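Hey, I was hoping to borrow your eyes for a little while. No rush at all, and the record is pasted right below:
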Amino acid sequence: MPSVTNFRSALNRHGGVQRQHRWRITLAFPAAVATSDQTRDASLLAITTTTPKSVLGEVLVPFGGREMPLPGDRKFEPISITFIGVEDDMAHTLFEAWSEQFNGSNSNTAVGEFVDSYKDVTMELLDKNDNVIKTYVLEQSWPQEVGELTLDQTSQDSYNQFTVVLRFFKSRNSSDR
């Protein structure tokens, strides 16, 4: 029968519990969209997200009157990142400009080559001393959705926030093979 002592020992062997607030994200924008200072500042405004989810597809193979499920191709799901809205709308504007690189709202055309607008985004999980314990790289990311800003004249003592949905071609992390 497991005891509290066994449970605590198991936690201590692995460094304790992982804290949800111990992470950072490093964004990358096309050079035509943001300066390095703007990119750093936008990265600091991220307040919630999730790690990338990957799903193994399923191949159903008929055998003996039944279907035998076998693992198929890996698929990567988009992730959502929520940002704090700032007075000059800097981060939201950067994501809108990045999105415009792929398809202009007025022109309905791309600016340059798509390959120049895809950017790698890095997510890092941190321990209690800010040491990186795991790194995820979202390769060739792009903003699939730039969320709205909620405007509310009755809202007080709060701040605005918005969500960006990032799509990416694949994710790799420090435990991949």
Observations:
- Residues 90-102 form the longest helix (13 residues).
- The chain has a mean pLDDT of 92.
